[in-house]
Amino acid sequence: MMLSGRSICRRVWRRGMGNLGHADNLLNPTYGRLASSKYVRNYDPLHSGPPPFGMYRAFLAKPSVSYAIRVLDFEVDRDRGWTVFQRALDCDKPPNSLLFEKMMRFCKRFSPSKAPAVLDVAVRRHIAVSHATMRDFLDSCLQTTPPMAREAIDFYRKCGMRGPMSVIAIVEMCKSAGHPEWGIFLVQDSIEHSLEFSHKLVALLAECCGAGAGSPEAADAAEQLLALMPSTLIRGAPERNSFPNLVEALLGDSRSVRAHDVLLLMDRYGYVPSQETYSDVLSSLAQADRTNRALDLLRNMANRKRVANAGSFAELVDSCRRRSDVASVTELHRYANEHSALLLDHRVASAFIGAYGSFADRPALETLHEHAGNNGLVDDESIAHAFESAFTRCDADRVGAPRADQDLRVRSGGRGELTVG
Fold first, then answer.
1. Is the CB of residue 118 less than 8 Å from the CB of residue 107?
2. Which UniProt keywords apply (predicted)?
């Protein structure tokens, strides 16, 4: 017996009820049956074939927010997905946070560049942005070429969604965009919102500070991170690579004392700075005439079997000269004698010549002059002039006089040994 058209519709309607409204089922009974089936509930648009046919057309014929949410779960075409979202916004029923969550997931999968536009609509319509929406938004921004770091930062500020993973995602995005310094603001922002600072988060934020070295903002952020480290907000020892970045940011704004504090903290955690880091801080302290700190740092370097480079060591000698610290220059001369390569550097030799000339220490100057002659340093015009000036200050014979001229030549018998005059 043949069934009437009415009984067919009634039969489809009964089997397709599912969770769909009456109007949707009457409009497209086939969709109603599919949407309530196990096939659709388990559908994966990334690993399956085309979505169930008729869903997109059915939505266009009778759009609704709830229908759009279902369609976005299965849609794979970026243009159709965007159309569904736009039509849902025009429905009589106002959109809810779930619609934006589904649309952002769609953007992450198929249309990352549309993510900022979707979030902009949510912000303008005062829709609460869920953590899932924000996470998918950040993932979308990271997928574009180049990454949409600026857009991510702007919406991070607007939406107020704070969390360690979001901060890490934005920093990674800034790094991928080639501008890790853009993430400096996250230090203050994270402190204000009482976020938990993991070792990874601290290391990434310190990297932002190091990348922004030379700006007061980077140095301020570095000081804030430095203040956090001994506190209970960070458990255990921070990652080793956090510290050189903090030093770089602080030295970039001439904050030599705070940079030295970083080295002291490293010592507390059992980390030994590199020779380059040591020398950079030593140079900055000497230039700022923080001589006592610089001398303490040099002694600590000696204990750690680290040798200062010639440039920073020469600056420390000059710092001692400027404050007429004869005892410290004597100590530095002894240090240079133990590391003889230092005295072969023209900068170090000139620094000692200037110091002994300033102190009118003729015996020490003559010893230095002998060493310079034995090692060919006096052949350099600048070294010769430095000796001439220093001997003049000591009321000694000029370098051009017969006795001094003889002293300038390399003496027989090998290299003279350094002594402190």
1. yes
2. Mitochondrion
